[in-house]
Amino acid sequence: AAILRSKGTKTVHGISGIISLHNLSNLVKPGQTSSARMWIETRLGNNKVTSLQTGWMVPYDFNLSWQDKVTKNWWLQLNNDVNIGYWPSSSVPDMKNGASYVAWGGLAQGFTYVTSPPLGNSNKPDPDEPDVTEVAYIRLLQLSDSSYWLNISEDDVEVYADVFRCYEIGYMKYLGKAIGHEIVYGGPGGECGN
């Protein structure tokens, strides 16, 4: 994992971002996956988690989901104006009043005791001097509270990578209106451990 995740328990009713797309089909082996994702979830006691996740396979911009104020359904939206479909509130009852955790980034998975697949475009970013033409990114990160879309607060999020020798993430914070808040992430994979 190489993600930007929320630290607190603020109630969130939607997240969005623009994900770069990279073809790793010749580098990912059978039994492995490498994805760019955004997700929103509610964590309850006894390790119970209700989560809505989406990833991207072709280059379109989208909002992961936003919650309809009346029906409490969660919508998947393309280009901020085309509703693709929704998760009925009855299928995610624990998220009736919103979610408390969000994350953006990449996840690589594979069989235990086998080399791990690449992530992003397989390049590790230099978090101090990233070149977005060389690495994967997600930009224009936003959250929705109960009334409107907001830029994320730098104090409410943190970066997380579980195996830095294989994968890296950098949070670039706010880079102006066109890019907004941005993360850069990726890595070659390899001998990453279990």
UniProtKB/TrEMBL annotation:
Residues 1-193 form the Neprosin PEP catalytic domain. It comes from the Eukaryota. InterPro entries: Glutamic_endopeptidase (IPR053168), Neprosin (IPR004314). This is Neprosin PEP catalytic domain-containing protein.
